[in-house]
Amino acid sequence: xxxxxxxxxxxxxxxxxxxxxxxxxxxxxxxxxxxxxxxxxxxxxxxxxxxxxxxxxxxxxxxxxxxxxxxxxxxxxxxxxxxxxxxxxxxxxxxxxxxxxxxxxxxxxxxxxxxxxxxxxxxxxxxxxxxxxxxxxxxxxxxxxxxxxxxxxxxxxxxxxxxxxxxxxxxxxxxxxxxxxxxxxxxxxxxxxxxxxxxxxxxxxxxxxxxxxxxxxxxxxxxxxxxxxxxxxxxxxxxxxxxxxxxxxxxxxxxxxxxxxxxxxxxxx
Length: 269
Ligand SMILES: Nc1ncnc2c1ncn2[C@@H]1O[C@H](COP(=O)(O)OP(=O)(O)OP(=O)(O)O)[C@@H](O)[C@H]1O
Fold this sequence. Notes:
nucleotide-binding, alpha/beta, 23% strand, 6-stranded mixed β-sheet, 269 residues, single chain, ATP binding, binds adenosine-5'-triphosphate, 4-stranded antiparallel β-sheet
């Protein structure tokens, strides 16, 4: 459903994303994990058609990401989403329904469905300017789903959410994936990636260091034990011997020889 082929994005002399290839299938929940400045948001913006790759191809549902056909399939929730302060949550949802040209009756049913799913009935008729961060996020997620997207793209979805709101959002990702939506999320929260993702991609300095299920990443990196956090920190933290070993390679994922080299470098820390 989402396909990146050899994608590079530069800003002047800065390479934000380098030769990135990956796919996210329908029904798959893919978590992009990386430290600050790794290239996650840049990648997500290319998938949403908001940035053009310097090199390579990004396809959504087989369409180039910057086309109307691709956009119709996508729901995008950015890390700092926008709501109109002077509209109520319900008015905002109606506005989005109209923007997508959804039949008003179908739209009204959908809004009621989403108000129930996101438990918004207590506050959805108050002005958005009075909402807490968690309340705003629920309206934003609801607005992203009014057109029944096939691809859900979310940048840092759980930042600042309390446990109840985080649970609602996590359940949403799982139910969307189960119903066949391709979900791509970026996160710093390793526990979230570990809990939710079918596939994890670890990115640092614009390069994909490892990709797969947690078990596959362990195999690729020849590290059998420990939580994802340990793997992640070893790959991207400190003096970065692991990342350095990998960056010596031209491939975007690990070969067996690289895995052994990287594991030795971790062992020597
Ligand atoms: N418009 C831009 N102009 C110049 N450099 C940029 C631009 N956008 C991103 N960058 C740089 O590209 C790199 C990757 O940034 P990006 O925002 O994609 O990282 P990220 O993984 O999302 O980080 P964070 O977790 O901090 O949000 C960073 O070094 C950033 O400074």
